[in-house]
Amino acid sequence: MGIILSMAETPTMPDTSPTSEKNSAPPASQGTESNWAELFNQSRDLLCVAGLDGYFKQVNASWTRVLGWSQKELLSRPVADIMHPEDRERTLAARADLARGIPLDGLENRYRCKSGSYRWLSWRSAAEPKAGTVFAVARDVTDQRHAAELAQLTSKLEATGVLARGLGHDYNNLLAITIMNLDMIQMHGPLSDAQTRNLQQALSSLHSARHLSDQLISLTEGDEISREALDLKNLLHETFTEAITRADVEPDIHIATDLWPAQVNRLQFFQVIQGLVRNACDAMPQGGTLRLEASNVPASAPAPPASSLPSPHLRIRIIDQGTGIPASVLPKVFDPYFSTKPRSTAKGMGMGLSVCHAILQKHRGSITLESTPGQGTTVECLFPADVPA
C-alpha cells in the first residue's frame, strides 16, 4: 500500500458460478488471463499486489509512468526505501491494521520518483492476512494537493492584502505628519551640525518608510498594475549583482543572449529578484556561488503542472549552495504568516516570499522552490514573454 506492497501474479476473479455450471463450464483460457493482465496494465491508477513483508509482488505500468522506476527496480527493494521518511511511521501503522484484516481507504503519503522529487499518492487497500498479501490501488493526487495549497495561500494573501491596504494608508498619514513637523524644525533653525545630521537621517528613514508603504499599497490594490515592455537581460544582470553585497558570495550568471522581452512592472520585478537574492545570501552563512539562469520556454514546451501560465514564457532560476529548507517547512514558505527568522532579529521579516508570490501572480506567473537540506535551494520563476505565441 502506500502501504508496502509487492506482486507475484496477476489477480484472478473468484469463481462464483453455481455448481452445475462449474461442472459444465470449460476451463479458463489463456486469453482470459491475458485480458486480465491487459486490464491491469491499462489502468491510469497505480495498481499493485504486495506482501506484508514490505515488498511489491506485482505493479502495473502506471507505477513507472508516475515515479519513473522500472518494474524490476520496484520489485527488488523494500517499498519503504522510496517512501518519504516523514510518512513511514503512519504508513507502517496502517500496514499493521491491514495485517489484522482492517481495510484502508484514504491514506495519503509521498513516494520518491527516480528524479528525486516526490509524488503524493492516495491509497485504497485490502489484505488477505492468512496469505500475507495486500491488494491496493493508489491514485496520484499531487496536483490536487498543490491546487488546494495554492487556493489556501491565495485566500491568506487576499486577507493580508485587505489588512495591508488599510494599515498602509493610515501609516502614510502618520508619516506625512511626522515628515511635515521635521521639515518645519529644519526651517526654523538654527541647528547645530550634529542636529542637522540627525534630522536628515530621520527624514531619510521616514521617506524610505513611506516608499515601502506605497509599494505595499500598490501591491494589494487589485490586479491592474502598470507594465512596460522591457528587455530583461541588463535589468536582470544589474539587479542580481547589486543585490549581492557580500564578498564571500560569488555570482554565476547565465542569461540567454536571445532572452525574450516581457511586460513587467519594473519596480516590482526589481523587488522580486532583489528579495530572492537576499534570501539566498542569508541561506549561505559560509558563502559560496549563487547562480542565476534565465532562458526562453517556447510554446511547444509542456505546461508546468497545475498551472494556467500562458506560453511562451520565461524561466528564471536562482540556485544557492546554502543550508536548504527542511521538507516540513517547504510547504509553508509562501505563507505570509510564516517565517524561519526570529521576529526579534535586526533583519526583520522583510518583504518575504509571500510578496514575491503575489507579484508574480499579478504578472500571470508562478514561483516554485526545490530544496535539499545541506545542499541548497533552487527558486524558479515563470512569467509570460512578450512575443507572439
Could you give a quick summary of the protein structure above?
The protein contains ten helices and twelve strands.
Tag the structure with descriptive keywords.
389 residues; alpha+beta; five-stranded antiparallel sheet; five-stranded mixed sheet; 12 strands
Characterise this structure.
The protein is α+β, with helices and mostly antiparallel strands. 40% of the residues lie in helices and 22% in strands. It is built from ten helices and twelve strands. The chain has helices at residues 19-24, 30-42, 61-67, 71-75, 88-99, 142-187, 193-220, 232-243, 266-282, 352-362, and strands at residues 46-51, 56-59, 104-112, 118-128, 133-140, 228-230, 249-255, 262-264, 288-297, 313-319, 366-372, 376-384. A five-stranded antiparallel β-sheet has the order 2-1-5-4-3, sandwiched between helices. A five-stranded mixed β-sheet has the order 7-9-10-12-11, covered by helices on one side. A two-stranded antiparallel ribbon has the order 6-8. Helix 6 (142-187) runs antiparallel to helix 7 (193-220), helix 8 runs parallel beside helix 9 (266-282) and helix 9 runs antiparallel to helix 10 (352-362).
